[in-house]
C-alpha cells in the first residue's frame, strides 16, 4: 500500500487538544509525515501513539506535535525495521511550551536519508521544545539501527531547561552526536543520562571533530549538573565524551562519565566550560574500568575551563 499524503491519528486545526490517538503502519509507504496527534494552533498533544513496522515514511514521524503554544506530553513512537527519511519526535512543541515524558523506541532500520547536506533529516528527539522545558523524555535505539544525524533525549532549541532525559543505545550506529539533554540558548541541563553499549557513534571521517561526540548534558549558558554518561561493551566513540558541557558561561558540576571496555578516539571530560568570562568545572568524576582503548593523544580530564581564572580543580576525580 502507498499513501502519498500525511497520516494523522488526530488533527486539531485551531485551538484544542489532540489526545489518545493511535496510528499503526505495517509494510506500507507513506509519502509525507506521520503523527499520532497534531495540533495546528495552541493546545496540548497528549498520550498519542505511533507504531511503524517494516514501512517507509517520506518525511517526519511524531507521537505528539504542537505547531503553536502548548505541551507535548506522554506520547510514544515505536519504529521497527523501517525507514524514515525525515526526523523522529516523541513530542514536539514549535513555540512556547514543554515536552514531557515522551518516548521514542527504534529497533533496526534507518532514520534519515543519504544527503549529507540535508541537516533536517535523520535526527531523533525524545522530546523537543522551542521555549520551555524538556523533561523526562526517553530514546531507546537498538538492533543495528542507523541514525544519520543527532540523537537527543530532551532538546530545548531556545530558552528553558533540559532535565531527567535519557538516551539508551545498544548495538546501533549514530553518525553524528548523542546528547542526553541539550539547551541551545539560556537554561540548564540537569540530571540527564546517556548509556551506550556496543555500536558506533560518529561517521568514518577521523578528522571530523563535529561528529562522534557524546554529551550527558549540554547547555549554552547557565548550568550542566548531575549528568551521567556510560560507555561499555566495545562501543566506539569517534570523537569526545562529556559528562556535562557548558558552551558559554556557567558551571559544569557533579557530572559523571564511566568508560568500560570501550573505545574513545579523542578526549574524555567530566565537566567542560567553554565560556571566556564566568564558570567553574567542579565535582566531576571520570571512571575507567576494564580494558578500554583511547586515541594516541587522548586527554582524560575531570574538569576544564576556557578561562584560566576559573576553578577546574575542586572535587574533580579520575578513578
What is this structure's SSE topology?
Blueprint: E1 2-3, E2 7-13, E3 18-19, E4 22-26, E5 29-30, E6 34-40, E7 45-46, E8 49-53, E9 56-57, E10 61-66, E11 72-73, E12 76-80, E13 83-84, E14 88-96, E15 99-100, E16 103-107, E17 110-111, E18 124-135, E19 138-142, E20 146-147, E21 151-156, E22 160-163, E23 166-170, E24 173-174, E25 178-186, E26 189-190, E27 193-197, E28 200-201, E29 214-225, E30 228-232, E31 236-237, E32 241-246, E33 250-253, E34 256-260, E35 263-264, E36 268-273, E37 281-282, E38 285-289, E39 293-294, E40 300-305, E41 317-318
- Compute the separation of the termini in Å: 56 Å
Parts with pLDDT < 50 across at least 5 consecutive residues: none
How would a crystallographer describe the biggest sheet? 11 strands, parallel
How would you sum up the global shape?
globular
- H/I helix tally: 0
Any overview of this molecule?
An 11-stranded parallel beta sheet has the order 1-5-9-13-17-20-24-28-31-35-39, with no helix packed on it. The N and C termini lie far apart (56 Å). The radius of gyration is 19 Å and the shape is globular. The mean pLDDT is 95. The chain has 319 residues and is mainly beta. It is built from no helices and 41 strands.
